[in-house]
Design a protein that fits this description.
Elements lengths: L1 E9 L6 E6 L7 E4 L4 E13 L8 E4 L6 E9 L10
Antiparallel strand pairs: 1-4, 1-6, 2-3, 2-5
Length: 87
């Protein structure tokens, strides 16, 4: 299992949001709404968790409403995930 965290900031009166998707799946791994803490003041915000298989994975980050600055995404392994085996 992996945890996703994003570094974001906003100075907007209507802060924006971030959505994270994994490997082309249309299910959101996580969604975060920014808080108006000032444009230069980045904060790390938890943005969901998901299992990932060994090898290449594609992480997609979308900004459906704008109104924020995005600095980085952190992905941290939090534990083992069990995947069904193919028969």
């Amino acid at each position: 299992m992996y945890a996703f965290e994003v570094w974001i900031s906003s100075g907007s009166h209507v802060p924006g949001s971030v959505e994270i998707y994994l490997n082309g799946n249309k299910t959101i791994v996580g969604s975060v709404n920014a808080v108006n803490n000032g444009w230069p003041n980045y904060v790390k915000v938890p943005a969901g968790s998901a299992p990932m298989k060994a090898g290449s994975n594609v992480i997609e980050v979308f900004f459906p409403t704008g109104g924020l600055n995005f600095q980085a995404i952190e992905v941290t392994r939090t534990g083992d995930a069990e995947f069904p085996t193919e028969k």
